[in-house]
Design a protein that fits this description.
The protein is an alpha+beta fold. The protein has two domains: 1-67 and 294-328, Orthogonal Bundle (Hypothetical Oxidoreductase Yiak, Chain: A, domain 1); 70-148 and 194-251, Malate/L-lactate/L-sulpholactate dehydrogenase, NADPH binding domain (Ribosomal Protein S8, Chain: A, domain 1). It is built from eleven helices and eleven strands. Helix 4 (89-107) packs parallel to helix 5 (124-131). The radius of gyration is 20 Å and the shape is globular. 41% of the residues are buried.
Length: 328
C-alpha cells in the first residue's frame, strides 16, 4: 500500500490548527506539534500524529487544562518537584527538562520529578534537549503501569493498521498471550519487557517497577492500576514523569572519547545475518531521518492520514495535504 508523504511543516501546522480549534493555548499547541512531528520524523509513529486525537479529546472534554504553566513546589540545588497543573505533557516536559539542565550546569546533576502531567510523546525528545548542552539526559514516565511505555502505543498502531502484534507483547482479558491487538486493548494488558518468565520477563518486570518508582511513586502522582486506561477521558490522568540531566565532566575525564570508542566497538561486531549491520541506540532513528530527507517529507500509512483528516473535518480545520505518495 502506498504511503502519503507529508512535509514536517505541514504536519506541524495541522497539529497547531487542531489544537487551536479545541481552545488550547497557542504556545501549548506549538509544543505538542514539535514533539509529535519529531516522533514521526525519527520513526516512532506510535508517539506522533497517531496520538493527536487523544490529546484533542482530553482538551475538548476539559479533563486536561487548556492554558497555564507548571509550578515548582519543592527545590534544592540538584532536585525539584513540579506540579504539572494538569497541562499537556510536552509543556510539563519542556519545563522540567529545562530545569534539570540548569541544575546540572550549576551542580553537576539535575533530577526533576513531576506530577499532575499528561502524555508527553517520545521520552527521547526531552533527553535530547540535554544532549544539546553536552549533558546526559534520562527521562521516564509511568504512562503504562508495569510495562516499558513504548509498547502500548505500538499496539495501538498495529490495531489501526489491522496488523497482528508479535508474541510476547500483550495478553487477553484472561492473562493469556495473544497476537490480536484488539484483545489487548479491550480488557487485556501489556506484558513486561521479555514476555514470560522463561524469556526473561521477570527482568522486564523489575525494570518496569523501577520506572514506576521514578515516575510515579517519587513524584506523588497516580501509579499502577490507579492510572486511567488508554483513550479514556472521563477523569484526570495525573501522570508522573522523571527528568534527569548529568554533566559527565563531573566524573572521569575523556567521557566523549570513551563513548565514541564504545559505539565503534559495538558497530564493529560480527553481524548475526549478512546485510544486517549491528546497530546502537539512535541508529534506527538516523536511518529513518535519512529516509525522510531523501523523500522530502515524512511517509505516513494512509489509514493514519485518513483518520486524522476525519478528525479535522469534525473540528472544521484544513486537512493534511495528501497530494504526494510513495511506494511502501
Amino acid at each position: 500500500m502506498a504511503r502519503y508523504l507529508v512535509s514536517r511543516s505541514d504536519v506541524h501546522q495541522f497539529i497547531e490548527r487542531c489544537m487551536k480549534a479545541v481552545g488550547a493555548q497557542s504556545s501549548h499547541g506549538s509544543a505538542l506539534a514539535k514533539v509529535l512531528v519529531e516522533g514521526d520524523y525519527r520513526g516512532h509513529y506510535s508517539h506522533g500524529l497517531n496520538r493527536l486525537d487523544i490529546y484533542l479529546k482530553d482538551l475538548e472534554t476539559g479533563i486536561c487544562a487548556k492554558d497555564g504553566e507548571p509550578l515548582i513546589e519543592k527545590s534544592t540545588v540538584a532536585t525539584a518537584l513540579v506540579n504539572g497543573n494538569n497541562l499537556i505533557g510536552p509543556v510539563v516536559g519542556n519545563f522540567c527538562m529545562d530545569l534539570a539542565i540548569q541544575k546540572a550546569k550549576d551542580v553537576g546533576v539535575g533530577w526533576v520529578s513531576a506530577y499532575g502531567s499528561n502524555h508527553y510523546g517520545i521520552a527521547g525528545f526531552y533527553s535530547m534537549q540535554a544532549l544539546k548542552h553536552s549533558l546526559i539526559g534520562i527521562t521516564c514516565t509511568n504512562t503504562s503501569p508495569l510495562v516499558v511505555p513504548t509498547r502500548g502505543k505500538k499496539i495501538e498502531v498495529h490495531q489501526r493498521h489491522g496488523k497482528k502484534i508479535p508474541v510476547g507483547w500483550g495478553c487477553d482479558s484472561k492473562g493469556n498471550g495473544t497476537t490480536d491487538p484488539v484483545e489487548v486493548l479491550k480488557g487485556g494488558g501489556l506484558l513486561p519487557l521479555g514476555g514470560n518468565e522463561a524469556a526473561g520477563g521477570y527482568k522486564g518486570y523489575g525494570l518496569s517497577l523501577m520506572v514506576e518508582v521514578f515516575g510515579g511513586i517519587l513524584s506523588g502522582s497516580l501509579y499502577s492500576e490507579n492510572i486511567r486506561p488508554w483513550k479514556e477521558t472521563n477523569r484526570v490522568a495525573n501522570l508522573g514523569q522523571c527528568f534527569i540531566a548529568i554533566n559527565p565532566n563531573c566524573f572521569a575525564s575523556g567521557f566523549e572519547e570513551r563513548m565514541s570508542d564504545l559505539l565503534k566497538i559495538h558497530r564493529s561486531l560480527e553481524q548475526s545475518e549478512p546485510g544486517l549491520p549491528v546497530l546502537v541506540p539512535g541508529d534506527p532513528e538516523v536511518l529513518h531521518i535519512t529516509e525522510c530527507e531523501h523523500h522530502g517529507g515524512i511517509p505516513y500509512h494512509v489509514n493514519v492520514i485518513n483518520f486524522m483528516n476525519s478528525v479535522a473535518k469534525d473540528l472544521g480545520v484544513n486537512l493534511i495535504p495528501t497530494n504526494r505518495t510513495i511506494d511502501p
